[in-house]
Design goal:
This protein has 2 domains: about 220 residues, 3-Layer(aba) Sandwich (Rossmann fold); about 70 residues, no CATH class. Helix content is about 40%, strand content about 15%. It is built from 11 helices and 11 strands. The chain has a 7-stranded parallel sheet with strand order 3-2-1-4-5-6-10, sandwiched between helices. Strands 7-9 form a two-stranded parallel sheet. Strands 8-11 form a two-stranded parallel ribbon. The radius of gyration is 20 Å and the shape is globular. GO terms for molecular function: methionine adenosyltransferase regulator activity. Pfam families: RmlD_sub_bind (PF04321). This is RmlD-like substrate binding domain-containing protein.
Length: about 325
């Protein structure tokens, strides 16, 4: 096959930047889109809510693959802007899926482990396990999944619309606030000296996964699905899941960061109470994702060691 082209939405974001890098390293022609941070040279400025802008980009670059990373992905911010979130996470996703399906473009939609209720005893969750989001973020991502699968199904392109669920992410960041994991480094630094005491969740189980690993899997999924004929592609799984096996509560991650940096975390108090019933955002207890479907496709599901990565990279996150 000749030169391959991929469009990455949300290419200025935490995961999108690494997806761009992964495809570039494999020799693909990569076009990234963004909106508020797009520079109009290396990153195309595209309003995903504007179907004509999206259609123009697809027509001009004729990609074989689109990796859809763009989303409002912070549960608390989602609750603060439900209409804006739905416009991006659901409506824009449906529009993009419809345009890709009409052209036979492979669309990889990045979803989340928060589509599951995460009740004690349910994990690990297989791809066909019953969903049931506990918050609006998970609900909009689940509706985005359904939009992708529905649009490709309606176009008779089953197997060209693929959902990839991932858990909480960590990795190279422009600021620690980009990641619910990286930002814990700021928490540890913030309680030093005269910093105030902080309560930290020590109930919900999380499986932090490196953005470089997710980006590699996105490439490998794209390559695997493009290799399949139209008839074979229809039989490939439409929902995939990727996750590290490393398991921590947020408090345990703070303990680790304190140990790595040689800092005292006595002012960080473990909170084992679980969700506050009155909180608007309810988080699941354990949404561990099974990677069985990826493994059965022959895709490498190994991940970087969480502790080892942070020991190597910690200096860059103390800025």
């Amino acid at each position: 096959m000749g030169e391959r082209t991929v469009i990455v939405t949300g290419a200025t974001g935490f995961l999108g930047r690494q997806v761009v890098k992964a495809f570039n390293l494999k020799g693909w022609n990569v076009e990234g889109t963004g909106f508020t941070r797009a520079d109009r040279s290396s990153i195309l400025k595209v309003d995903l809510a504007n179907a004509s802008e999206v259609e123009k980009v697809l027509n001009e670059h004729n990609p074989q693959v689109v990796v859809h990373c763009a989303a409002n992905r912070f549960p608390d911010k989602v609750d603060a802007d439900p209409s804006g979130t739905r416009a991006l996470n659901v409506d824009a996703t449906r529009s993009l899926a419809k345009l890709c399906a009409a052209r036979g473009v492979l669309l990889i939609y990045i979803s989340t482990d928060y589509v599951f209720p995460g009740r004690p005893g349910d994990a690990p969750h297989e791809t066909d396990a019953a969903t049931g989001p506990t918050n609006l973020y998970g609900l909009t991502k689940l509706e985005g999944e359904r939009a992708v699968l529905d649009e490709f199904g309606a176009a008779g392109r089953q197997g060209r619309g693929v959902v990839l669920r991932v858990p909480v992410l960590y990795g190279p960041a422009e600021s620690n606030a980009e990641s619910a994991v990286n930002v814990l480094m700021d928490v540890v630094l913030g309680v030093q000296g005269g910093g105030a005491r902080v309560k930290m969740d020590h109930w919900a189980l999380r499986y932090p996964t490196n953005t470089d690993d997710v980006a590699r899997v996105c490439h490998d999924v794209a390559a695997r699905y493009l290799e399949a004929s139209s008839s074979d592609c229809a039989s490939l799984p439409r929902v995939l899941q990727f996750s590290s096996e490393d398991r921590y509560t947020k408090y345990e991650m703070c303990q680790l960061f304190g140990e790595i940096m040689g800092l005292n975390i006595d002012k960080i108090e473990p909170n084992t109470q679980g969700n506050d019933p009155g909180a608007s955002v309810q988080r699941p207890f354990d949404c561990k994702l099974s990677t069985r479907a990826l493994r059965e496709l022959g895709i490498d599901v190994s991940t970087q060691d969480f502790v080892g990565w942070w020991r190597r990279e910690v200096r860059a996150f103390r800025k």
